[in-house]
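Bench log, entry 3. Co-assembly request; chain sequences pasted below exactly as received.
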Amino acid sequence: MIRSIGAMILLGWETLRALPHAWRQRDKVLSAFFDIGNASLLMSCILSLFIGGVLALQSGPVLVDRGLPFVIGQLVGLSMCKELAPVMMSILIAGRVGSAMTAEIGSMQVYQEIDALKTMKIDPVRYLVLPRMIAISAALPMLVMFAILVGWLGGGFVSVMNHDIGISYQSYMSNLRIAVGWPDLLHGVSKSMVFGVVIGLVSCYQGMQTSGGPRAIGASVTQSVVKSIVFILILDYFITRFFVYFE
Amino acid sequence: MTSSDHISVDLKVRGLTKSYDGNLVLKGIDFAAEPHTIFVIMGPSGSGKSVLLRHLIGLETPDTGQVLVNNASIHDPATREQLELAIVFQSGGLLNSLSVGENVGLYLKETKGMPDADIDPIVNDSLEKVGLNINFDKHKMPSALSGGMKKRVAIARALAINPQMIFYDEPTSELDPLSAVTIGKEIQHLNQEYGTTSIVVTHDRDLAFGIGHKIAFMKNGVLTEPRTPDEIRQHADEETNRFLNAGRIQDYQSNLN
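Structure output for the full assembly:
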């Protein structure tokens, strides 16, 4: 595990060094970016809509009972923004996009495509890893911002429609607007940027490490998703600590 | 591409050893391949041929020993940068996400940074040399190609590099006899026309004796002294003879009896 982390950091460093070549790889960056959006936009919409809704459904009646209905907007707003949207979207992307990245690179490794690149003096990090890293690091924060907005709408919808809560949409939104500020949005987006880099690194590293036959690709994909989720959750704690310290 | 475009190179291997998990796979390999020749490495499956090939092209680092191309180590990045080497992988090694034309022009685009307008004629020329249709086959995806066509595209990709040395890993495996002969003739033709040094790893006896100038046998990680096909026919030891003559109709008939 420690060796894997070291190798991933090394891969991250090599990717950073390849960054000046990013413009030449723009077509592949754009292609990967649209692939990520295409694969996950609908899923993230459904997921965040229901997360926001469940959050309001679980907390709403309790808060109303205690005479605090105006806190629902604040609770849903901050929870989606700081924690649920970045973490849940990152887990979704690790499973949906990261696994596909690992499978693609792993299959290229098994079928000697990466060896072919090396013999043509084409650096696999520059050609394969860099475009995917840039695409996922840019796409995930955008997806998270989208998920935050949809999650707020889901929470608002349930708060208005559920008879046990029954607050007005204006009341929900005005409370949310007061409670959630730009620093809170920055908190969530910063997390998602870090998670994007982590998913990209883990997925590409696991793909490059694949050796053997087609069964090895399946094993690499599983490892990639599990490691990504573990790293996301561990880093989530430390990034939260960092932001809490400055708040 | 003409033979005057580049200088063909020689290959020397000195005391190459490699072990994986304590298992010695290459046991001190020594040989030399002269420029403009076709050097064939033959041997049964699992004898270490492909591992040796990966060392020759610089994809693996040996435990001890050296691979020298024109007396410079293949593992030295500066040497590697100067050399134009190409390999035709057993599976073709074509990038499945790119079309045939894009695969053939990949080196020129990514390594040489050439514009598309300059790449196109070279790609067409390379495809034509291996008998592929530039209007029809060029735009196909590798998944739509037969095994023989994949090998041809891989050879066309190697040609586009204008290499000083080409390595072939089992170029006729998984091919029917007619396609195997076509690929063999292609290798021979490229060697004769452009003088490119060729290293062929195979267990195809007909291919080896049909095109090889020198042939060496790989047995359990040891390479025998390279000889011409005629010398091998005249002076083969018992084990080599068994390998060369196995699989004839009589073998199957004697088993039935």
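The interface with chain B takes residues 24, 107-108, 111-113, 115-122, 127 of chain A (CB under 8 Å). DSSP finds eight helices and no strands in chain A.
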